[in-house]
Specification:
CATH architecture of the largest domain: 3-Layer(aba) Sandwich
Keywords: Methyltransferase, S-adenosyl-L-methionine, Transferase
Function: Methylates the class 1 translation termination release factors RF1/PrfA and RF2/PrfB on the glutamine residue of the universally conserved GGQ motif.
GO molecular function: nucleic acid binding; peptide chain release factor N(5)-glutamine methyltransferase activity
Number of strands: 9
CATH class of the largest domain: Alpha Beta
CATH topology of the largest domain: Rossmann fold
Protein name: Release factor glutamine methyltransferase
EC number: 2.1.1.297
Structural class: alpha/beta
Low-confidence stretches: none
């Protein structure tokens, strides 16, 4: 313990430690960890810059620093994220909700604007982000969320309770025993090609592989989901999927060949990211 260590000094030392460890954004991560460990708001970093840290504060911050230096995701250390206006608990049980998935939520909700009391299914719910995002935006919706992982479903239920949102959670392998009919099926399924395991960022190693990799081209789960979707969609129902820019066009073309009206949608950087599909 360093009895002379101040808030400003801790921030400086942690930034240097994370930079040396190869963390991509050492300044931002150090600031977030110092605020979290010391229970400071943004202004507290300035107003308490010269305050000396207690031994316990140094211990807590040191443990967080150690874990981030070995590239444990920042969100896991903080314990929660803000996503689409929701506060969500996160853990290694499920993927941390990505910004790109907010686009999927926004696009899918637009398809529900003219549908009263829509019936919605979120497949592979993980933290429950998409299901809870729909329920928050459309309180009249009947929302069901499925996941194969019991641990992920427990996390999703915690997030539903945290937000006070009523969603039905079901343990199932993709569509499993679900029968619908649903007006909207949406999913952010595992979509990375298996070979990506050899080249991902170290942080990805803390995510559950079950939620990441989708076979040789990343589409194994998406194809299974599309094959079962006609059996659970209501007439006029729509399926929305978030996929990898490398394979979203491939699936869209396959869906068209199978009798779907499918369209690829770009993300905010212009890369193809989501596909919507209706039976014709």
């Amino acid at each position: 313990m360093n009895p002379e260590l101040t808030v400003q000094g801790a921030l400086r030392d942690l930034t240097a430690q994370l930079r040396e460890s190869g963390v991509p954004s050492p300044e931002v991560d150090a600031r977030e960890l110092v605020q979290h460990a010391l229970k400071l708001g943004r202004s507290g970093l300035l107003t308490q810059a010269g305050r000396k840290l207690s031994g316990e504060e140094q211990r807590v911050l040191g443990e967080l620093a150690r874990r981030r230096a070995v590239r444990e995701p920042l969100q896991h250390l903080l314990g929660e994220v803000e996503w689409a206006g929701l506060r969500l608990k996160v853990s290694p049980a499920a993927l941390v909700p990505r910004f790109e998935t907010e686009l999927l939520l926004t696009l899918a909700l637009a398809d529900l604007e003219a549908v009263p009391a829509p019936r919605v299914l979120d497949v592979g719910t993980g933290t429950g982000a998409l299901a809870l995002g729909v329920k928050q935006a459309r309180p009249d919706a009947q929302v069901t969320a499925s996941d194969l992982s019991a641990e992920a479903l427990d996390l999703a239920r915690q997030n539903a309770a945290l937000s006070g949102l009523d969603v039905v959670f079901v343990q199932a392998d993709l569509l499993g025993s679900l029968s619908g009919p649903y007006d909207l099926l949406l999913s952010n399924p595992p979509y990375l090609p298996d070979a990506d395991q050899l080249q991902v960022q170290p942080e990805v190693g803390f995510d559950p592989p079950l939620a990441l990799y989708g076979g040789p081209d990343g589409l194994a789960l998406a194809r299974r989901l599309a094959a079962g979707a006609p059996g659970v969609l209501a007439p006029g129902g729509v399926m929305w999927l978030e996929l990898d820019p490398r394979n979203v066009g491939v699936l869209a073309a396959e869906l068209v060949a199978q009798g779907w009206a499918a369209q690829v949608h770009p993300d905010l950087t212009g890369r193809p990211r989501c596909v919507s599909a209706r039976r014709v």
